[in-house]
Amino acid sequence: MTDDSERAGADGSDPGPEALDARVVLAEELASIRDLASRASAFVALPEPRVLVEDVRSRPLEERYRTSATDHAERLGLEDLTPAGVRAFADDVPVDEPVARATSFLVRRAGRLQGRLLGQFSRDPESPREYLVLATAAGHLQRAAADLEVAAETDDGDLAQHASVVLALAAALFALAEDGLGAPADRDPGAAATDDPLPEWFCREVALADHHRALARGDTPAMNPRERDHDALEHLLVVQGATLAVTELDADPHAVADLADIPLEHLIGVLASD
Predict the structure, then answer these.
(1) CB 255 within 8 A of CB 10
(2) What pLDDT digit, counting tens, does each position of 140-166 carry?
(3) H-run or E-run covering 250
(4) Contact at 8 Å (CB) between 58 and 50?
(5) Using CA atoms, how far apart are residues 209 and 216, in angstroms rounded to an integer?
(6) What three-state secondary structure class fits 63?
(7) Distances in Å between the alpha carbon of 208 and those of 135, 231, 232, 237, 265?
(8) Cβ atoms within 10 A of the Cβ of 193, count?
(9) How far apart are CA 129 and CA 107, in angstroms?
């Protein structure tokens, strides 16, 4: 890491103002999701976000990503978590196209979170790898929500598992953010700031979410995160995030690899395979 007089962004330019803490960015963006979920609980039998997250997090790890949505669907009166069952349920909800609206909202907010994290990464923060891991997590959530929207409209994939991936990954992000869960609307997101490194459980869950996305689509996952150690998982997520920095920010791969402290050939290899 260079000193302030030598700092340069991932694109080689002056990075501008000092980067916001990665978990403050996360808490700010999750607040809008929490507030939407709180408002939704007034229309359907949806638990408050804090209760929902605690319930999901209390389940065994694999169960969270495979079936956690099924039980909550049943509590909503949706006993058949299939496209036909979702359409029948939507007819009884006083909101037009509730699933499409909810998933589209998540896609937008996750995309915004990813963009903000990558933007802060370009400012040469103290812990650049954390921004890349969180940007990867946001990308997984965005794609999982998009998968869920498609699955709810078609027979493409396992709808219940797609919904479970969204629910479980969102719960992991809320838990990491400490969490804004059930917190008042005027809670200062700055309270989420910390010097603590990303915990191993979080890196494992981000990788596991992508693993279960593939399973829900009927694809064969590239690897099983439960068979990798923490260092290997973190490296994988950092490289994925660095790829996003290059493609989304049009940043120089050499600068990104240097800032992320990863071998340039690893980044180039992923970019070449996309």
Answers:
(1) yes
(2) 999 999 999 999 988 889 999 999 999
(3) none
(4) no
(5) 10
(6) helix
(7) 15, 15, 13, 11, 25
(8) 14
(9) 23
Structure tokens at 150: 């498609």
Neighbours of 46 (CB within 10 A): 17
Q: What is the dihedral of CA 183, 145, 251, 22, to 10 degrees?
A: 20
Instruction: Judge whether 57 and 175 are in contact, CB under 8 Å.
Output: yes
CA angle 87, 93, 98 (to 5 degrees): 65
Q: DSSP string spanning 22-53?
A: HHHHHHHHHHHHHHHHHHHTTTSSPPPHHHHH
For residues 7 and 128, what is the distance between their CA atoms, to the nearest angstrom? 13
Tokens 């969490």 found at? 179
DSSP secondary structure letters along 68-87: HHHHHHHHTT----SHHHHH
* Token digits of residue 3: 């000193």
Alpha-carbon distance 129 to 120, whole Å? 11
Residue type, 14: D
**pLDDT score of 51:** 81
> How far is 21 from 68, CA to CA, in rounded Å?
31
Q: Tell me how far apart the alpha carbons of residues 123 and 146 are, in angstroms, rounded to a whole number.
A: 29
Q: pTM (2 decimals)?
A: 0.89
CA-to-CA distance for 95 and 110, rounded, in angstroms? 22
Q: Reduced to 3 states, what is the DSSP secondary structure of residue 127?
A: coil
Residue 17 in 3-state DSSP?
coil
Residue 37 has what pLDDT? 74
